[in-house]
Amino acid sequence: MQHQIILIFHLLAATVWVGGHLFLTIRYLPEALKKKDASILINFKNKFEPVGLPSLVILLFSGIAMAYHYDVTFTQWFSFSNGIEKIVSLKLLLLFISVGMAINAQLFVFPKVKSEHLLPVAVQIVTISIIGVVMLVLGSLVRIGGL
To answer: What pTM value is reported for the model?
Structure first.
């Protein structure tokens, strides 16, 4: 039962994180690019961060808890020795990339974003959205025993 509760929190957090980025990618990014208006993206970012970042933290802790439930402990991370370990390891790699991209966006991309130069932020948004979807698909494969 504990695993099921953790899974529910993980899925709710994934809904916020991935759904928010897909909504940004599909709805707000095209508008910002068309109008050449960085404020559209900055406004979304400022509204999304208070729910998006806590959801990312929940994903981290609930994902680790579920990995331990499947006996994939810290010492087995990145061993790629069975189907579940492969998924955990790939999701951790993608998480590290996501966190790195979040730091990059916070420190370098958004402070310098100009309405005339939206390409760096657009690449960042699309990439993090793709990573989120890939992580979601990988998580769904746990049910069938992993990769």
So the answer is: 0.91
Sign of the dihedral defined by the CA atoms of residues 83, 67, 137, 91, in that order: negative
- Condensed to tens digits (0 to 9), the pLDDT of residues 86-117 reads 999 999 999 999 989 989 988 988 888 888 88
Could you give the dihedral angle defined by the CA atoms of residues 16, 20, 23 and 25, in that order, rounded to the nearest 10 degrees?
-140
DSSP H/E element including 89: helix 83-104
Q: Where are the alpha helices (DSSP H) in the chain?
A: 2-23, 29-35, 38-69, 83-104, 110-112, 119-140
CA separation for the pair 101, 124 (Å, rounded)? 7
- C-alpha 42/C-alpha 37 separation (Å) is 9
Place of tokens 């599909």: 26
